[in-house]
Amino acid sequence: MLQSYNFFCNFATVDWKIIHIDEMDSTNRWLKENGKEGMVVVAAYQTAGKGCGSNSWESERGKNLTFSMLIHPEGIPANEQFRITEMTSVALCETLGHYINNKVEIKWPNDIYVGDRKICGMLIENRLQGSTIKDSIIGIGLNVNQTEFRSDAPNPVSIRQLTGQENDLETLLHQFLVAFERVAVCKTINRDYRARLYRKGVSALYEDQTGRFEATLTDVRSDGRLVLQDETGWQRTYAFKEVQFII
C-alpha cells in the first residue's frame, strides 16, 4: 500500500471489487445498502440515475459508464469534504485526457466539460461520523459511446461524438481507478482542480437570485464555495445551487 499524505485517504492501490449489474435504479442507492470499502458497482442501465440535487442522468443501455464506488477516507474533517470532489474531478479529467484531444475542464463544482458541453457528472454522498467523514459514495455518469441524446439536457456530449471512436467501457473504468489512486496521494489536488476550472479568468454570464450579471471566475475556496468578481470589482461568493452558469 502506498502511503497518502496526512489529511487524506489511506487507501492508494486499493484492491477494488468490481460488480456488474445489468439494471438497477441507482448505483449509489445500491452501495448504501450493500457496499463495503473498495467496492465498485457498475450498471449497464440505471432506471433512476441521479445527478446533483433533483437532476436526472440520461444514459442509453450499455453505451456509457455509470457506476458508484465506496471509499473510507481517513481523518478528513466534515468541513473539508470538498477535497473528495476535487480528487474525483481531477482523476476524471486525467482519464479523459487520454481519449480526447480537446481541453477537458471542471465546471464547478463537479461536472466535467469539453468546451461548453457536459461529458460527465457525479453525485458524491459523504456519510459523517462525529466531525469526520465515515465513508464516501461517489457516483459517476460518463458519456462514452452514446451518439444521440433525447432528454431535455441542453448540452450533453460523449467521447464517441468527439472522436468518432467506440471505446471499451471496462478499460476506461480501470484507467479511471488507476488515476483515482494516483491523485489520492497527490499533494497538489487543490492546485490541479483550480487549474482545470471551466471559465477561470474569463468574463461570462451568471445568474443568481437577483438576476443575471457578468463576472469572472477567480477561485474556489477550500470549503467548495465559488468566487466570482463582477464588473464593479465586487467579489461574490456562492455555495452550490446559489448561482447558475449561463451557457
N-to-C order of helices and strands: EHEEHEEEEHHHEEEEE
Mean pLDDT across the residues is 90
The first-to-last residue Cα distance is 43 Å
**Helix content, binned percent:** 10-25%
Give the radius of gyration: 18 Å
| Main pleated-sheet profile | 7 strands, mixed
Query: What is the assembly state of the chains in this entry?
Result: single chain
Q: Could you say which structural class the secondary elements and strand pairing correspond to? A: alpha+beta
- Poorly predicted regions are 1-11
Please count the helical segments: 5
Strand arrangement, largest sheet?
1-2-3-7-6-5-4
How much of the residues is beta strand, in percent? Answer: 25-35%
Number of strands: 12
General shape:
globular
Describe the structure.
This protein is of the alpha+beta class and 247 residues long. Helix content is 21%, strand content 33%. The chain contains five helices and twelve strands. A seven-stranded mixed beta sheet has the order 1-2-3-7-6-5-4, sandwiched between helices. A five-stranded antiparallel beta sheet has the order 11-10-9-8-12, with no helix packed on it. Strand 6 and strand 7 form a beta hairpin. Helix 2 packs across helix 4 and helix 2 crosses helix 5. The longest helix is centred in the middle third of the chain and has 16 residues. The protein is globular and about 50 Å long. The N terminus is likely disordered.
